[in-house]
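hi! just following up on the protien thing from before. the input was this:
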Amino acid sequence: MHGTPDIVTNHSPSRAQELGEMLRRRRETLDPKRLGLGRAGRVRTPGLRREEVAARADIGITWYTKLEQGRPIRVSPRVLLSVAQVLEFNEVETEHLFKLASLPAPLRPENSRVCEPLTAASQQILDQLCPYPALIQTKRYNIRGFNEAYRRLVGVDLHAVPPEDRNCIYLSLVNPAWRASQADPDEMLANMAALFRASMAEHLDDPAWERQLERYMSASDQFRIVWDRYQLKGIENIVKRFRLADGTILALQSNNWWASPSNDDRMIVYTPTDEAGAERLKAMMKRQRIC
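and the predicted 3d structure came back as:
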């Protein structure tokens, strides 16, 4: 048995009651037969019994009963997560449960979407944006999708880059062609590092973020220097300058879009800042016969 939970919740009585109500209602919807729980005699209550939830979560029935009754008790993230798993809460429901208990949300499993292709619909949107360069990336700067205009703009055949290496910060550290396409590479690296640090503050002790940071550190001493400045920034629509194959500089405005509040995928579309830039971009794409 887990023993006495070790963190005191600070939720108000109303929040405690809502938490208890959430647990009770879910408990009453679960089918004992589906969960392999045999019942002898007449079943008087719907769903699982409190003692069955407590036993499967490996906690005391008295403690669970008080929790479901909305009484202020001691509760730890580990124990609450165990209850959430027994009651088959999904990620969003579990996070809400933790908010009601005034506890930090549990870490989600490492996101495996980095190596997963985009949906056909998302890729179609990127392709239709041509001649405007566009990509979809995560908060950790992993590139999940891109159009041909973006691939040509950065001067790197991203199709040939392993999915785990398609990362804007990592490529700026190890890929000469990528770095050459940036008119202000040092400034852009510092900006990305500041954005990464700000986002990482929301994922403290997350192994995936720690591994990503260590990879940046190992790839370049320059990143270590930039990281030690301890700068933080929020996402803004900024003007970014790219160096084209002929050496000319093309200034493009970044435009950021999110698919949904719960999804950290961000679509960035680069648009010209003036008419001359628009003509230059169109000419470049037309010359390379990609749009």
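The chain has two domains: 15-106, 112-287.
The CA atoms of residues 47 and 215 lie 48 Å apart.
cheers
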